[in-house]
Amino acid sequence: MGRGKIEIRRIENATNRQVTYSKRRNGIFKKAQELSVLCDAKVSLIMFSTTGKFHEYISPSVSTKKIYDDYQKALGIDLWKTHYDRMQEHLRKLKEINNRLRREIRQRMGEDLHGLRIHELHGLEQEMAESLTNIRDRKYHVIKTSTDTYRKKVKNLEERHGTLLMGFEPKCKDPHYGLVDNDDGGYDYGIALGNGVSNIYANYRSQHNHHPHLDHQGGGFGSHDLRLA
């Protein structure tokens, strides 16, 4: 019993369509290769799948460009002329845009103003004023952003400083650790030695510019400012 005739129409199932394309593509390439070998024919076969994938077969003795050139000679046409003309038109438009932008730049720098009419000069002046306004707005925005950032950093530092002071104040009242207020307006740094044998106190006055025991050379404590408890 022979095979039934297959109706030639589009396969609706995408998977089946792709499988059929792959099988028949290989068959067509095989036939093209056989035709090229048996008949010494120049064969060029180009295929694109529905997914846009490119497949090509070309006879070993020729190139794709050679096939295109022979095709153009046989039909008397130029396959590249339309594309070349389109590229030339696109290049011409780009050159016009480039020349216009260069002219506008020169005019904004006070050059190439000859030949401009009064309304063109007025429009140029208005554009310059708008550009200056935009530049100023941008400048003020940058300054404001920098100032806000600086203020936030200062605020964070002040909060950290206040937190450190709150934790340090209880220790200042301990004569073996922190600061001790004196009756004469000064205060002492009390440093307790770890072995508990003795304490060293260095007296420092709040009005250090009137302190008689300051070292005049370096502005610090002299040897007579230290005493053992």
What does this structure look like?
The protein is an alpha+beta fold and 229 residues long. It is built from four helices and six strands. The chain has helices at 14-39, 64-75, 81-108, 118-172, and strands at 44-48, 54-58, 179-181, 187-192, 199-204, 226-228. The strands form two sheets. It has a four-stranded antiparallel sheet, with no helix packed on it. A two-stranded antiparallel ribbon has the order 1-2. A hairpin with a 6-residue loop joins strand 4 (187-192) and strand 5. The protein is flat. The chain starts with 13 loop residues before the first helix and ends with a strand.
Give me the secondary-structure topology.
Blueprint: H1 14-39, E1 44-48, E2 54-58, H2 64-75, H3 81-108, H4 118-172, E3 179-181, E4 187-192, E5 199-204, E6 226-228
Antiparallel strand pairs: 1-2, 3-4, 4-5, 5-6
Features of this protein?
alpha+beta, disordered C terminus, flat, four-stranded antiparallel β-sheet
Query: In total, how many beta strands?
Result: 6
Structural category is alpha+beta
Q: How far is it from the N-terminal to the C-terminal residue, by CA?
A: 124 Å
For the biggest β-sheet, the strand order reads 3-4-5-6
Query: How can the largest sheet be summarized?
Result: 4 strands, antiparallel
H/E order of the elements? HEEHHHEEEE
In terms of quaternary structure, the protein is single chain
Mean pLDDT, as a whole number? 76
Shape: flat
- If you compute it from the alpha carbons, what radius of gyration comes out, rounded to the nearest whole angstrom? 46 Å
What are the segments in which pLDDT stays under 50 over at least 5 consecutive residues?
186-229
Strand content: 5-15%
The number of helical elements comes to 4
Helix coverage percent of residues? 40-55%
